[in-house]
Amino acid sequence: MLNLVLFGPPGAGKGTQATNLIEKYKLVHLSTGDILRGELAAKSTLGLEAKKYMDKGELVPDEVVIGMIEVKLDQNAGAKGFIFDGFPRTNAQAQALDKLLEKKNAPIDMMLALEVEKPELVNRLMGRGKVSGRADDQDINVIENRINVYNRETAPVIEYYNKQGKFRSVDGMGTIEEIFARLCNAIDKVNGGSGCGCGCK
Ligand code: AMP
Questions:
Q1: Rounded distance, CA 178 to CA 30, Å?
Q2: Is residue 129 lining ligand 1, measured as CB closer than 6 Å?
Q3: Known active-site residue 128
Q4: Which pTM was predicted?
Q5: More exposed terminus of the chain, fewer Cβ within 10 Å: N or C?
Q6: Please, are residues 189 and 112 in contact by the beta-carbon 8 Å criterion?
Q7: In this structure, which topology does domain 2-191 adopt according to CATH?
Q8: Is residue 59 within 6 Å of ligand 1 at its C-beta?
Q9: For ligand 1, what atom is nearest to the CA of residue 88?
Q10: What is the pLDDT of residues 153-185, one digit of tens each?
């Protein structure tokens, strides 16, 4: 299996790059933000409860997102691997993920952290808000709060993976293609060449 954490602040390009990476490496994309928006669209109790946090740019409680990931891992038992996007966002989530993957004997291989400067993050989020209709991308105060929450609560997760020797910093500035090439380079160093992650080239 190949299990990757795609990390970075809001607007770093995690979703865009995950879409390309899952195609190349044949992985399952698990984005907690996407799952939560799906719950919200379905007007489920979980979705409506999560909305209160999402609208303010605050984190949804750990036990809620950990429970969602557990369900998705079970639903995709035959997967060749996963890209975790927007998860884990706290050390408690990172610990819970390690426990869940321990059961599968398939630990996280690496954390790829996209580094993007703050003015560029704000630009990208405001630009996305115009087309996506996402409320949390259209309000500068919510955007600022999401970046602050990232710096305060999520950035410490880097140290969690750094201690395990799994942290890789990737320059997230440039074109989508340039950033994709950097990510693939980092993955292939660990994965033993380009391919789907099963050993084939
Ligand atoms: P994203 O699409 O990753 O930017 O997430 C959108 C919003 O969903 C965030 O601002 C949080 O409110 C919530 N969210 C997504 N993933 C998580 C997570 N792993 N932990 C807590 N809240 C999350």
A1: 23
A2: no
A3: yes
A4: 0.94
A5: C
A6: no
A7: Rossmann fold (3.40.50)
A8: yes
A9: 19
A10: 999 999 999 999 999 999 999 999 999 999 999
Residue with tokens 């140290």: 159
What pLDDT digit, counting tens, does each position of 89-132 carry? Answer: 999 999 999 999 999 899 999 999 999 999 999 999 999 999 98
Q: How far is the CA of 192 from the centre of ligand 1 (A)?
A: 32
Query: How many Å lie between the centroid of ligand 1 and the Cα of residue 32?
Result: 6
Atom of ligand 1 nearest to the CA of 36: 8
Question: Which residue in the block uniquely carries the two structure tokens 């609560």?
Answer: 153
- Enumerate the domain spans of the chain: 2-191
Instruction: Name residue 171's amino acid.
Output: D
Sign of the CA dihedral 21, 23, 27, 33?
Answer: positive
In short, whether 112's Cβ falls inside 6 Å of ligand 1 is no
Could you tell me the two tokens for 143? Answer: 């955007």
- Alpha helix segments (H runs only) across the chain: 14-25, 32-41, 45-54, 62-75, 91-104, 118-132, 140-149, 157-163, 176-191
27 in Cβ contact with 81 (< 8 Å): yes
pLDDT at 193 over 60: no
Could you tell me the distance, in angstroms and rounded to a whole number, from the CA of residue 54 to the centre of ligand 1?
7
Residue 199: pLDDT band with limits 50, 70, 90: very low
